[in-house]
Prior knowledge:
The structure is a single chain. By secondary structure, the protein is α+β, with helices and mostly antiparallel strands. The protein folds into 3 domains: 41 residues; 96 residues, no CATH class; 42 residues, no CATH class. The chain has a 4-stranded antiparallel β-sheet. It is elongated. The termini are far apart. The mean pLDDT is 79.
Amino acid sequence: MKYTYHKSGDIINGVKLISTDIPKKGKQRCGIFECPYCGKHFISTIVIISRNVHRLRVPSCGCMKVIDKTTHNLSKHKIHTIWANMISRTTCAKHKCYKNYGGRGIKMCVEWRQDFKEFYDWAMANGYNEKLTIDRKNSEGDYSPENCRFTTREVQNRNRRRSIPSKYPAGVVFSAKYNHYYSRIGVNSKVIHLGTFNTIEDAVQSRKDYAKKHNLIGFYNE
């Protein structure tokens, strides 16, 4: 197995390595790490941090055990899973969705990351129920009270960042053959054609007008 020589400043499984200037523990290199949940520094062997990756959580200084067992008794609640997944997506490089979140610089606000109860209280006061999903209003922004809401899966899909970049705005297609722009919008799994236009601006405006008229929220970059 190829050995990775970590240095100060490296992020190992979502945990920042502050320093390696401490004695080894047996044959294992040790490091001072910054807890991604509470910000405290703690000492651990590098190999433990490298291997200790739970499906829903990155390693901590131990504060998560205290929070889960004694503070709120909500560790089995669906909201706790949502919270843990947000942390993993934004901090754990081994998470399958990391490239679309933490890999793009998307973070979770300090208040939520350090205190599950803060997130829980916000969720309870902002429309949480088990049929809804958490969604970022600006899909390029962070997980924070100002940028998050609970919505249906349909609205979340409208707001999703396009995986294939395009030089034209969402829902607008240019026809070189006819030299005009098509405008369309997806609603309830159906594509609605809004017409043809001479300029991109008119095509985009047609989508905005349709969304406003039919009270459709969550369209990306609109």
